[in-house]
Amino acid sequence: MRPPPTPQDDQEQLEQILAQAAKAMRELQEAQTRIGAVTGVGTSADGLVTATSDGHGAIISLKLDPRAMRLDTTALGRHVTMAVQEAQRAAEQQTRDVLSNLPHTQAMPKPLGASLVRERVEEAARRLLG
User: Fold this and answer.
1) pTM, to two decimals
2) Which of 27, 47, 56, 96 is deepest in the core (most CB within 10 A)?
3) C-alpha–C-alpha distance, residues 62 and 48, integer Å
């Protein structure tokens, strides 16, 4: 049977959790910066339309080859849609890659539950009452 945890044990556990949380926050800030630098590029099948998306999915540029102006509006719309969707998919994949490489956020301990606190209070009461 293990001896009951001491306040020192709890303090050490809490310090470990706080240190891990601080590392995770630093990683998240770094990831946010890296996501801000993400650009996804998409091009229509015939290369007439090229779109660029940022890491949040916003379109930051759209380039039309002069030959695209010869297309009717429906065809041009399809080409633009294709290029935009491809750019957004590419940016989304890069963003996922950034987020999947955050080891400290994936290994965060489970939050302290009410049962742990109750156990500690009950243990302290038993010690005080004898």
Assistant:
1) 0.65
2) 27
3) 11
Q: Are 40 and 93 in contact (CB under 8 A)?
A: yes
Q: Render pLDDT for 88-124 as a digit per residue (tens, 0 to 9).
A: 999 999 998 888 877 655 555 666 666 766 777 777 7
- Given a contact cutoff of 8 angstroms between Cβ atoms, the answer to whether 95 and 87 are in contact is no
Q: Give the per-residue pLDDT at 1.
A: 61
Per DSSP (E only), the strands in 15-128 are 39-43, 49-54, 59-64
Note whether 94 and 38 are within 8 A (CB): yes
Contact (CB, 8 A) for 16 and 31: no
Collect all residues with Cβ–Cβ distance below 8 Å to 88 and sequence separation of at least 6: 40, 42, 53, 57, 59
CATH code reported for the domain at 23-104: 3.30.1310.10
